[in-house]
Write a structure and sequence with these properties.
This protein has three helices and no strands. The longest helix is centred in the first third of the chain and has 80 residues.
Length: about 160
């Protein structure tokens, strides 16, 4: 009976192969379960990280919008301030007229100083004499008067 019939041999080989196949299937199912748990864990971690990043970016966007709103509000306030103060500043025409009045008002002083300088240079000597000192005082007084007139003019225009 050492010899097995062909049918018994095939049955034994088939049973052995089935046991090995069942064992391999069990291992594959075990690995499948382990891999599925690993993938689920990674997916959950990735999903949590994406949610966190989304909330951070949303918060950063809100902060940036708040800062932008503040800047735009400050710019609008500056624009309104400039518009309201526009009448306070002298125009080019005002400054030109003031310059012409200055030239007319100080023409005698300038002519006097030019005459004094011409007289001194004709004599061949430049020295600080009484007339030149008076001319300097008059010129300084003219500059002071011009400044005072300009300030009074600007204050008079202010609403």
């Amino acid at each position: 009976m050492d010899e097995l019939s062909l049918r018994d041999y095939v049955d034994q080989a088939q049973a052995s192969t089935r046991r090995e196949l069942d064992s391999l299937r069990a291992e594959v199912n075990q690995w499948r379960t382990v891999m599925q748990e690993e993938l689920n864990g990674r997916y959950q971690a990735m999903h949590t990280d994406l949610d966190r990043r989304f909330l951070e970016s949303k918060s950063a966007a809100q902060l940036a919008n708040g800062a932008l709103d503040k800047r735009l509000e400050a710019m609008n306030e500056l624009r309104q301030q400039i518009a309201s103060e526009r009448g306070w500043y002298a125009t080019k025409g005002d400054l030109a007229a003031l310059g012409e009045r200055f030239d007319v008002a100080h023409k005698p002083v300038v002519e006097f100083m030019a005459a004094q300088l011409a007289r001194v240079s004709e004599q061949g000597e430049i020295r600080h004499n009484r007339y030149l000192s008076i001319a300097q005082i008059i010129a300084a007084a003219g500059v002071i008067v011009t400044i005072v007139v300009s300030v009074v003019y600007m204050l008079a225009r202010r609403p």
